[in-house]
Amino acid sequence: MTASFVYAATRTPFGRFGGALAEVRPDDLAATALTGLLARAPALDPAAIGDVVWGNANGAGEDNRNVGRMAVLLAGLPTSVTATTVNRLCGSSLDAAMLASRTVETGDAEVVVAGGVESMTRAPWVLPKPSRAFPAGHVTAVSTTLGWRLVNERMPAEWTVSLGEANELIADKHGIGRERQDAFAARSHNLADAAWNAGFYDDLVTPVDGVDLTRDEGIRPGSSPETLAGLKPSFRSDGTITPGNASPLNDGASALLIGSEAAADRIGLSPVARIAGRGACATEPQWFGTAPVEAADRALARAGIGWADVAHVELNEAFAVQSLACVDLWGIDPEIVNTRGGAIAIGHPLGASGGRILGTLAARLRESGDRWGVAAICIGVGQALAVVLENVA
After folding, report:
1. Radius of gyration over alpha carbons of the chain, in Å?
2. Cα 237 to Cα 179, 242, 284, distances in angstroms
3. How far apart are CA 61 and CA 26, in angstroms?
4. Does the annotation count 326 as an active-site position?
5. Between 26-39 and 67-74, two packed helices, what is the crossing angle to 10 degrees?
6. Cα–Cα dist 105/27, whole Å
7. 90, 189, 281, 312: which is the annotated catalytic residue?
8. CA 161 from centroid of its chain's CA atoms
9. β-strand 383-391 against 273-282: which pairing, if any?
10. Residue 65 Ramachandran class (φ > 0 left, ψ -120 to 50 alpha, else beta)
C-alpha cells in the first residue's frame, strides 16, 4: 500500500438558487471545475489520469447518464479517460475523494481526479409512471431539488421527517437555542466575507465562463445575530431554524487532484496534504445531523491521532444547530471550525460540498503551517463522512 495526497483543488463560485448560475447546466459546471483543476497542473498529461470519480446527489435531469463522464468529454479530455459518478447525497464529492484515495493507495492508479456538482436550481420535477395506462385521477410532479421524495410507505414515519424537522429534534435534544444558532450563522457570513476580502479564495475558485460571478453569491457581509433574529422559523411555528441559520439551496462544482507521492513529477506539483484517515458512520435517519461526530472520531483513530492534535476543522454547515451539536459533542474549541466561513454563507450545492470542504482544509493547512485537520459532512438519511489531512507542504 502507498499513500495518497491532495495535490490541487478548485471549485466554482457557489450561486444562489435561481441566481447567477441558474442558466448553467450541471454538466457544464462539472466541466468548468475539471478544466480549472487541470489548469493548476499544466505539466500533467490528461491522458495520465487513471480515473475520474464524481459526486452528484440528484442525477434526475441534465446531470443524468454519469455526469462525471460527461464532464470529462465536455472538458475536452482524451476519450480514454474513464469516469464514474457516485451518490452519497450531501457527502457525494467527499465520498468521491475517499474512493480516489483508495484507488491510489491500492496502486490501481497513480493520479485520480475527484469532484462533484449540483445544480439545485435546475433539478427537475419528476412524474412517476402510472401502474396502468391513462389514469383517471390527478398525478403530481415531484421536485427533486432537496429532501425526501416518492417515499416508500414501509419506511417508519420518524425516519422520513423533513431535514428541517430532524434538526429541530437535534435542537430539542441538545438544548441549542435560536440565539446561539443565529450567532453561529452570522459568524459564518462574516468569516467568509473576510476570507474573500483577504484573497484566501482567489487561488481556490475557478470562474464560470459567461457568468458575472466573482465570489460566492450567498454571503451577507455585516450579518449579526440581531438582524438574523428577525427571520421567522421555517419548520415549526415556535421553532429555532430559519432561512438565516441553515444552508441555502445552491449551484456549483468542486474538483480535487489526488495522487501518489511518486506521481509528483508526472503532475508537476508538490503534494499539499496526505489523506491520513477516513471515516464513515450511519445512524437513524432523523439524527443525520450529528452523525459526523462518530465519522470524524473513526477517521482520527485510523490516522493515529486525537482531537488534541487537530488545528483546523472544516465541518459542512447544513444547519447551525447540527454544526453546534457536533462541536459540543467533540468537545473542541469552536474557533478552529470553519475559520474561512462555512456553508451557511458560502452555500451547499449538495454534490459539490464535500470537495469544497476538503480543498478548503488543504489550503488552510498550507496557509497556517499546522499539521492536522479534519473535514466532515453530515448526509441525509442518517450518514456522515470524514477525512483527516496531514499537511506536507
Report:
1. 20
2. 16, 11, 25
3. 9
4. no
5. 60
6. 29
7. 90
8. 22
9. antiparallel
10. left
Average the pLDDT over 261-265 and give the result: 97
For residue 10, which phi and psi values (nearest 5 degrees)? Answer: -155, 170
Does residue 348 carry a catalytic annotation?
A: yes
- Hey, what amino acid is at 272? V
Distance CA 82, CA 72 (A): 8
Residue 163, pLDDT above cutoff 90: yes
What is the distance between the alpha carbons of residues 224 and 209, in angstroms, rounded to a whole number? 34
Neighbours of 151 (CB within 10 A): 11
Of the residues 189, 281, 326, 378, which is catalytic?
A: 378
Tens of pLDDT, residue by residue over 19-53, are 999 999 999 999 999 999 999 999 999 999 999 99
> What is the per-residue pLDDT for 393?
85
Q: Which of 189, 312, 326, 348 is the catalytic position?
A: 348
Residue listed under C-alpha cell 412524474: 127
pLDDT class for 207, splitting at 50, 70, 90?
A: very high
- Phi-psi bin for 66: left (phi > 0), alpha (psi -120 to 50), beta? left
pLDDT in tens, 91-146: 999 999 999 999 999 999 999 999 999 999 999 999 988 888 888 889 899 999 99
List, in order of start, the domains of the chain with CATH numbers.
5-122+248-391 (3.40.47.10)
Is 281 in the active site? no
Dist. CA 300–CA 290, nearest whole Å: 17
